[in-house]
Amino acid sequence: MELTEHDDLNPHLGNMDAIDAVADEGFIQGGALVLDWNINAVLGWLSEKGFAELVPMFKMHTIDGAVLPKLNDRLLREIGITNVGTRVQVMNEVVKIQAIARAQQRSGMIWTDEQYRAGPCSGSLPFGFPFCCECMHGRPDLYTLYNSKLNIMQSEKVCNTPCTGCCGYLIKSNNVDLSLIIDIDTDASSTAVGDPVGFIQISTMDGNYYVLSMRSSECQKITALISNAKEEAQILQHMQTMNMVR
Length: 246
Description:
The protein is built from eight helices and seven strands. By secondary structure, it is an alpha+beta fold. It has a four-stranded antiparallel sheet with strand order 1-2-3-4, covered by helices on one side. A three-stranded antiparallel sheet has the order 5-6-7, with helices on one face.
C-alpha cells in the first residue's frame, strides 16, 4: 500500500496536474502554458486553429500570452478583424484560453516556508532537543501562498509512538481563500540571543481562524506578502463580478 506524502496533497502540483488535464496540446506551445506564451507561440496557436490569415494583425499588435486572454470583440475590431463571423469564431477560442489562463493565474506561487519551531536556549539548540528525531515530534507545518489562496499543510502522527511516527502521518491540507480574509494580525518579539517564535493570525469571513508560526524577524515581511495577495485577490474577484453583471 502506498503512503500519502506531502506532494500528494500539494495544491500547486495538484493545480498544475488539473491544468494539464484540461489543457490539450493546443494550449501548450513550446512547453509553455498560455500566460507564458511569446508572440510566436500565439501566432502558432492562431495557425493551428485555422486563423492563419490573422497572423499579420496579431504580430503587428504584439499579442502575446499575457494579452491574448484579455481580448474581446471590441479589441478584435481595433486590430482590424472586420468580419463578424471571424470575430465570433476567434472569441470562441479565446474563451477557452481565458479559462486556462485563470487557472494558471490562480496556481501561481508567491511564497512558501515551514513552520518555525524554536528550540531551547533561544533557538540555539534544535527543536525538541535532546529528542530531535522527526518521528518523536512530527513534521512542521508547511505554508504556501498562492495568488488565490494560502495553503496550510499539517502532518499529525496517528499515535504518539516512535514506531507509528516513522510509518506515517495524518496529513491535512487547509486552503484559505484570500478573498475571504478580513483581518491579519502579527505577534512578534525580540530577544538578546536568537530569533523567537512570532505568530501571524488570520481571520476570515466564514468565521475561521488560522495561526502561522514564523521567525519573529520575518513576521512583518510575510504579513505584507499575505496582505498584498489578499488585496489583489479581492480586486480580481470584484472585477470578475462586475464583468458578470455586465
